[in-house]
Amino acid sequence: MSEDTFRIVVTVAVLIASLAFVVQAGIVLALYRMTRKIQDKTAGFVERAEPVLAKVEPIFDKVGPVIERIGPALDAVSEAATKVGPAVERLVEKTIVFSEHAGQFVKTVNQVALTTNQIMQETRPNIADISEEALTIMHSGREQVERMGDLLHDAGDRARSRWTRWIMQWSLPSIRSRTFPSR
Asked: What residues contact 9, with CB distance under 8 A and at least 6 apart?
């Protein structure tokens, strides 16, 4: 490379470095402006936040003792929870046992219902036959009772007529001969 070319390359490099320095200066200037704006905005925020913080500070002072008193209360609650834990476990175990027994009971009841339904289905025709036979027997019994009633009436009528004839036959002579006192 010749000396003229070398000088041109060095000059271009210096120009690029100068340009980079100017760009960096512009970026620093922009950052400075931005931080000033942010500082102005935060200053306004701090001015508005100071009264709020002044009001919150006494609340923090009051909260400190409350938090100190909550510690033992939480300890008591954890002790109570450890005491209640076994009782809850026993209750859960009893509930599980009860639910298992209830499940077995429901299965048994379902089986009984199925058996009862099957028996009903099997005996329904027999019940219908028995009902028909009972109805037939009842009609037959009624007819026989009516016949017996007729026979008793006939026998009663015959007995009455025979009794009357017998009385008339045997008592007519004695009635004629007898005198009845007058009343």
From this structure: 1
